Amino acid sequence: MMFPFKKRRKEAAAVPEPVAPPVIFPDVCIFLVERRMGAARRGFLTSLAQRKGFRVMHEYSGVVTHVVSEQNSFADILGWIERKTGRPMQSAEDQESPHILDISWFTDSMSAGKPVPVEARHRLGILGSPVSKDKEALLTVSSYACQRRTPLTHHNAEITDALEILSKAAAFQGSEVRSLAFSRAASVLKSLPLKLRSAEEARNLVWCGGHCQAVIQEILEDGVCHEVEALKVSEQYQCMELLTSIFGVGVRTAERWYKDGVRKLSDLADPNMKLSADQRAGIEHYTDLKQPVTLQEAERMEHLIKDALHRFVPDLKITMTGGFRRGKQQGHDVDFLITHPSEEALSGLLQKAVAWMDSQGLLLYHHTKTRSHVHAHRRSTHMDGHETCYAIFALPSLDSSKCEAEAGVPGARTTRRAVRVDLVVTLYDEYPFALLGWTGSKHFERELRRYSWHEKNLTLNSHGLYDAEKNCSLPATSEEEIFALLGLQYVPPTYRNA
Ligand code: UTP
Ligand code: MN
Fold first, then answer.
1. Please, what are the domains in the chain?
2. Any catalytic annotation for residue 270?
């Protein structure tokens, strides 16, 4: 990119420079910023440039056309110039504003033996444009996802979609490490407040090197990543996607089935297939369950659950968590946390409530896991010992509820739709930890735990926060308190979409 050199001010000639070799490039007037460069290096660079016929000013003034600095931000330099001149620099059209440059323009010019045209890569920023903030944003991305804010919608979906496919494919091949590397890069890009324009911009981002850098470059330059396109149409990837989308089927099971020749849902109907109760239910309701649950449906589900559970304990606290709490408009299931200050009130509650809902025809399938003791001293990432009911509900459709109301006959001509629901009962003092653990996203949770362990030497799970060294747990009464205990700035749920 070519930029015309800035015109010198008319008064320029009136400001004489101290003794210096003859000036060969009168249109260029350099000022080297001493801050962070140091006086000695500045002196050396000044005489180097002067010997090559450049004009270098010792004091900053309006005649300067090129401000060169090292390891300073655009904002630092602007602030410095504004303090010097006593006037704000705002407009990029201002003919008298100098170029604010990184040392790279200076070194390029010295090697060329003449002033090289200013290119985007030389600039710290452009006045009145967001480039400055952008560059700062790219340089200040924190390493852990729990130290960043990740909104639901962001600016780099094309790239993150591709990285997430690569992550999934790596997981399907049993390579957790590669899968995590792609997830981390995707998560960093989701937190960026701007759209990446070149692979060069991503060069200094945490977790975005190597293979990820190549993917980013390919998408920015060609619009697609060939490796990803090939995966999307590969039989193995498509089949693994299909099988792992069945309720009760994890990567390992899907892999085994794939090796045994399973390619489509109907292959699972083979009487020789050993299927768990979850999997049978998942296959039976597959068509409904693969249809995303809308926010509206989740809210109707919430209403239905509250109505049922409050029959047994009226002041039960019931909270919708998971993706919907993070502001998602749809999800693969609906997650609820249930608690009460009295442990007695919670005892036997789930069993009674589930039996009642079943009797009302609200349940298509359920399996309940009782509470298990989670060892505080064991550092486990997937420990979750809460009493949980994994269910498939029959959610009456809006139209059919209206029909019932109009006809006054419950169940008459009802159309229902299968919806996956998780009901989690937590002890009152574990509730903030369960809320934090079940709000997700999965990557945000993984990063919170990694941060707790590596940076604070603490074990975090959805029951509590433990100090293994002192052999004690650190109680908290809210999510905010947990973040504070970890020395983290609070991240609201809508910014946990890592
Ligand atoms: P989900 O799998 O429901 O994810 O788990 P989600 O973010 O709500 O996504 P969709 O919209 O349903 O597709 C929600 C959170 O609960 C945790 C997960 O780690 C995730 O952060 N979780 C899930 C547990 O802690 N234990 C479990 O047994 C299941
Ligand atoms: Mn969910």
1. 29-139 (3.40.50.10190), 145-231 (1.10.150.110), 234-284 (1.10.150.20), 288-498 (3.30.460.10)
2. no
